[in-house]
Amino acid sequence: MEKTEQSIKENIQKAKAGNQMAFSSLLDTFWNDVYSFQLLRTKNENDAEDITIRTFSKAFDKINTYDEAYEFKTWLITISKNLHVDLIRKRKRSLLDEMDSHGEEVKRVLDETPSVEDRLITEQNLANLLRDIKKLKPHYQKVINLRYFNEMSYADIAKELNEPVNNIKVKLLRAKKLLAEIIKKK
Q1: pTM (2 decimals)?
Q2: Domain RNA polymerase sigma-70 region: where (predicted)?
Q3: CA–CA dist 48, 93 (Å, integer)
């Protein structure tokens, strides 16, 4: 659904007046732009979605500060970029604090490569997990394999299986719950 420049400006004015439908329309119009921008930056769907949600939340809180001399999308992307930078700084600070409090302990963990025993345990756990996955119905096996072993995004899985993204999300959630039940029964 293509939004005209005029309808976007009208929605911005209505949003400034507190109209919830205008907020919703702006969210629908610009969600993919902000989310795609963040997905490219973070390379992580969860972070991209979280930052996108916070971007719109902050933008709607500060909608009265928006200067119409600039494009609304540019304003949103700027907010999004700043939130991402804040997140990176917070994570670095957290890691540095962790390193300070544990000193050499953390450095040793960060530098260690898995031992032969660690690799053997991992391989055994993976073999058990694969055996459990094979107990699921084929369509659940497929979404789990595409998501976790092929590391495909929801959108890519949806294209691969020719299904809507929401169906993929629901199938994956259901598959994980069923797999958890199989593992608990052991």
Answers
A1: 0.52
A2: 33-93
A3: 20
* Chain segment 29-60, per-residue pLDDT in tens: 999 999 999 999 998 888 888 888 888 888 88
Write the CA distances from 148 to 36, 88, 151, 173, integer angstroms: 21, 25, 5, 13
Fold of 115-181: Arc Repressor Mutant, subunit A (1.10.10)
Every domain of the chain and the residues it spans: 5-93, 115-181
Residue keyed to tokens 């804040």: 86
Calculated CA dihedral for residues 136, 137, 142, 148, nearest 10 degrees:
-20
Find out if CATH 1.10.1740.10 is the number for domain 5-93: yes
| Mean pLDDT (whole number) for 7-24 | 89
